[in-house]
Amino acid sequence: MKAIIIEDEKPSARRLNRMLADIGITPEVMLHSVHESVEYLLNNPAPDLIFLDIQLSDGLSFEIFDQVDIDSAIIFTTAYDEYALQAFKLNSIDYLLKPIDEDELKAAVERFQVAFAKARKNST
């Protein structure tokens, strides 16, 4: 499974990376802005799962979807609850509020893994 983190607050990105490592996930890359994320997503194979903050240093992460067609599953990781409805209109698995609870993160990842396994089984 290929996962990436898009988070502008480097301490939050490192904490999420550690939490994911504890459950056996090693994100391929950590990106920190809308611009950097768009460039990466346009020039690399699509990840299976994106951990996505909403308010980034150069805009809202929803701007990424205006520039790149993304079919990846998304787990939003944000301090803002007012974007939940907009987030669930995308390929959202979950919407986790910071500080992220380890059990909630694990449950969200497990939901993704079940859906990912079903999708793989159906494609063979």
TrEMBL record:
Which Gene3D superfamilies does the UniProt record give?
3.40.50.2300
Q: Which domain of life is it from?
A: Bacteria
* SMART domains for this protein: REC
Pfam families, A to Z:
Response_reg (PF00072)
One annotated GO molecular function is: phosphorelay response regulator activity
4-aspartylphosphate modifications at? D53
Q: What is this protein called?
A: Two-component system response regulator
Origin species, per record, is Nonlabens ulvanivorans (Persicivirga ulvanivorans)
